[in-house]
Amino acid sequence: MSRARLEAFSDGVIAVAITLLALNLALPGPGHGSLLTQLGDHWPAFVAYLVSFFTIGIIWVNHHERIRNVKVVDRTLLFLNMFLLLWVVAIPFATSTMAEYLTSGGQDAHVSMVIYAVVFQGMGIAFALMFEWTLQEGHSVHPIPADLQRTVRVRSSIGAVVYIAAIPLAFINPLISLAIIGAVAVYYIFEQTPRELRRSHHDVED
Amino acid sequence: MSRARLEAFSDGVIAVAITLLALNLALPGPGHGSLLTQLGDHWPAFVAYLVSFFTIGIIWVNHHERIRNVKVVDRTLLFLNMFLLLWVVAIPFATSTMAEYLTSGGQDAHVSMVIYAVVFQGMGIAFALMFEWTLQEGHSVHPIPADLQRTVRVRSSIGAVVYIAAIPLAFINPLISLAIIGAVAVYYIFEQTPRELRRSHHDVED
Amino acid sequence: MSRARLEAFSDGVIAVAITLLALNLALPGPGHGSLLTQLGDHWPAFVAYLVSFFTIGIIWVNHHERIRNVKVVDRTLLFLNMFLLLWVVAIPFATSTMAEYLTSGGQDAHVSMVIYAVVFQGMGIAFALMFEWTLQEGHSVHPIPADLQRTVRVRSSIGAVVYIAAIPLAFINPLISLAIIGAVAVYYIFEQTPRELRRSHHDVED
Amino acid sequence: MSRARLEAFSDGVIAVAITLLALNLALPGPGHGSLLTQLGDHWPAFVAYLVSFFTIGIIWVNHHERIRNVKVVDRTLLFLNMFLLLWVVAIPFATSTMAEYLTSGGQDAHVSMVIYAVVFQGMGIAFALMFEWTLQEGHSVHPIPADLQRTVRVRSSIGAVVYIAAIPLAFINPLISLAIIGAVAVYYIFEQTPRELRRSHHDVED
After folding, report:
1. Which residues of B make CB contacts under 8 Å with A?
2. Virtual torsion, Cα C115, C118, C120, C121, nearest 10 deg
3. What angle do helix axes B43-67 and B3-20 make, rounded to 10 degrees?
4. Which of A203, B74, C56, D34 is most buried (most C-beta within 10 Å)?
5. Can you tell me the distance from the alpha carbon of C60 to that of C54, in angstroms, rounded to the nearest whole number?
6. Which of D13, D97, D104 sits opposite C19 (nearest CB)?
């Protein structure tokens, strides 16, 4: 299995998943109150779209950063990659369920946010497993230097830690969970890869 | 992040978004009056399909023209690209909402056209930001010569100006807004890149 | 615009369109009679799926055969390609409408088959225009020899001629139209590109 | 037809099909009982998602292993590949029908599982035909050595044999069919390509 085709297939799946997110924006339509009221009532769908869109976008960026440095694609990596995509593909489902129940309110809004956080957590675990695979002897073209591994591991785990915290918080207030999951996306957009690491990667840039 | 993978991912997202547009063509089906009447009543869906299809097509062409000239893909460009795709992915939603309300008529047809114009405007702003990024020192393989930057900027802004104008016009008559948004697409299909610019690009053609 | 990205984008659009065809296979589901009866009543959906699937598949093969021989991608070719994709993307809509009305029967089954044939005809015209563009002086890496152009033109037109014939035939019996449109797909699967032409193309194989 | 574009198109179709699987996870939504009860009642959809997701994933891996070793892409291979994709694209339909009837129970659960097994069987036959094509004289860059062909053929047929067995078993208990179809996926994830074969392939890795 070549690295190029692993990337192409993953890109395809991620691109379809991110585009399907927008299906959930659909409003009830004519005969269900004024359009402005519908837009207002539907706000969880728009916020959920933003959070899920940028989170999937960040997965894509980080996925690429890991894979392009891989020496040989073996069955373990393929399986871990499929495991990651299993969760990515489930994000539109988790997003629409959560947005729907946040709109309708009631006790199940809590449950729907737990589902959302669990899917993100599953994705985070899959990504962490892929990342650990790349750290193993002989798996990377340019291994991450030992003194930087800790920094990169901490950086990678921030999402996972927040997604775990979002699960109990959903029982208190689902909006807090949504806010911190969204904050993770904002963090990863602005966060910089350590300069030393980027330099060590520079010659595998294609 | 390599330029090639940025293009491949963006191509995937744009290809899915343009294909999802056709889901909105679906007619009510058997038991809702004669098929010819349904086709006739459904005309806004067909016109909206044409306008959105060619607009997304033009975004794709212009996206490629900008990206293939980029020297190094940094986090800012990735973020701007995600911001552009956020709006592109929302176009099928805006298209179907607008077509539905244009079909049903009433006051909300105006509001639905505003939503449509706002999404196109968001896309235009995202594209303009990406374009300004490419003009910055050291970002392009073949920088646009200073004497041509004005021409290219004006050319790029035509869409944005029209989409802004389409918002107030939607309150007067939504069909006028749709007509001028469609006219932008026709303009960009027939408009030629300045000859000097194309020549300066020639050696980055791949 | 590079040939490679034109191909990649077109591949993406065609791949999504061919996959969306299957959405139309969905049965009414539990509570609508026995599953075997539903499958039997739904036969037009399965036949329509086969015909549309292989027709789109053939478009993809022929698209590639034309494009890989193109010297320079200009705005005219881009526009013709968008025009082709406009019809390809509409095929799932035409397929589901036709299958639905063939299932429900009545006068509108004729009309729905006309829509189906018109969409295929539109696609055929777009493809013919693209083909004529490639025949023009300086557009192909390996121009088709003058003595073979006639053969290739005739071969290309068979679909277009049949799709035109399918329109009036739909008023007599829509199943005859469907049968001959399906026969076109079978013809192109087994038909061989003239040996001389393939040889002249051989060195642009990538 | 180049090998690269055959792969790119197949990747696109497989990526869309695998992502569409998740559309079937959608729950009835607010007003249909508690969300936890809905999740519980909906378990066949989640199990079916897992089985279909990993099966399509394995098809993709095996597809790549076959195609990258192909010397020349001819019309026969293209047709066999289209035949394979025809079944892959139908998997989301078969999956959602099966999950829906397993949820609602009754006699038609058996029938829906037969449909599911038949689609997987169709896919298996298509893959076996493609595989036999690659074994023919002159079709592969690195032909599989005669002494390994038997091993590889047996390995390839395991899925096909199980899918055939799943058809009669569906009449006894559809869950047994689902379990053994799922077991095939698990088998192929952990099963290793014979070491000798991998070595002989090594120099066509791209």
Report:
1. 1-2, 4-5, 8-9, 12-13, 15-17, 20, 75, 78-79, 82, 85-86, 89-90, 92-93, 96-97, 100-101, 104, 106-108, 111-112, 115
2. 170
3. 180
4. C56
5. 10
6. D13
> The tokens of A119 are what?
């899917």
CB A110 within 8 A of CB A167: no
Please tell me the distance in Å from C139's CA to the nearest CA on chain B: 16
Domain spans of chain B?
3-204
Q: Quick one: CA torsion of D2, D3, D6, D11, rounded to 10 degrees?
A: -140
User: In chain B, count of helices (H) and strands (E)?
Assistant: 8, 0
- How far is Cα B21 from Cα B52, in angstroms, rounded to an integer? 8
Q: Which residue has the higher pLDDT, A147 or B162?
A: B162
What is the Cα–Cα distance from D64 to D86, expressed in whole angstroms? 17
Cα dihedral value D57, D60, D64, D66, nearest 10? 110
Mean pLDDT highest for which of B66-75, C58-67, C111-120, D144-153? C111-120
Chain A CA closest to residue B79: A189
Nearest-angstrom CA–CA distance, D180 and D178: 6
CA distance B79 to A60: 12
Say yes or no for a CB contact (<8 Å) between A30 and B106: yes
Closest among C141, C145, C158 to C194, alpha carbons compared: C145
Chain A residues with CB-CB distance to B92 below 8 A? 22
Sequence letter at residue B130:
M
Q: What is the mean pLDDT of residues A14-24?
A: 95
Contact: D14, A9; criterion CB under 8 Å: yes
Distance of residue C106 Cα from the nearest chain D Cα, in angstroms: 27
Q: Contact C8/C60 with Cβ under 8 angstroms? A: no
* D13–C18 C-beta distance less than 8 A: yes
**SS3 letters for chain A?**
CCHHHHHHHHHHHHHHHHHHHHHHHCCCCCCCCCHHHHHHHCHHHHHHHHHHHHHHHHHHHHHHHHHCCECCCCHHHHHHHHHHHHHHHHHHHHHHHHHHHHHHCCCHHHHHHHHHHHHHHHHHHHHHHHHHHHHCCCCECCCCCHHHHHHHHHHHHHHHHHHHHHHHHHHHCHHHHHHHHHHHHHHHHHCCCCHHHHHHHHHHCC
Q: Which two tokens stand for residue C25?
A: 């296979």
Contacts of B64 in chain C (CB under 8 A): 1-2, 5
Q: Which has the closest alpha carbon to D130: D178, D83, D181?
A: D83
D89 contacts C53? CB cut-off 8 A: yes
State the DSSP string of C67-94: HTTBS---HHHHHHHHHHHHHHHHHHHH
Comparing C-alpha atoms, which of B88, D124, D117, D82 is closest to residue C50?
D82
Residue at token pair 């004024």 = A34
pLDDT range class, residue B200, cuts 50, 70, 90: very low
Which residue of D82, D93, D104 is in closest CB contact with C25? Answer: D93
A91-108 pLDDT, tens digit per residue, is: 999 999 999 999 998 899
Cα(A96)–Cα(D17) distance, rounded to whole angstroms?
20
Confidence of residue C91 (pLDDT cuts 50, 70, 90): very high
Tell me the chain A residues in contact with residue B86 when contact means C-beta distances shorter than 8 Å. Answer: 50, 53-54
Which of C16, C82, C93 lies closest to B26 in CB terms? C93
Q: Which DSSP string do the residues of B137-177 spell out, in sequence order? A: TTSBSSPPPHHHHHHHHHHHHHHHHHHHHHHHHHHH-HHHH
* Residue of B6, B7, B16, B74 to mutate for A, most A C-beta atoms under 10 A: B16
- Interface residues from chain A to B (CB-CB < 8 Å): 7-8, 11-12, 14-16, 18-23, 25-27, 29-31, 34-36, 39, 49-50, 53-54, 57, 60-61, 64-65, 68, 189, 192, 205-206
Encoding tokens for residue A201? 């990667």
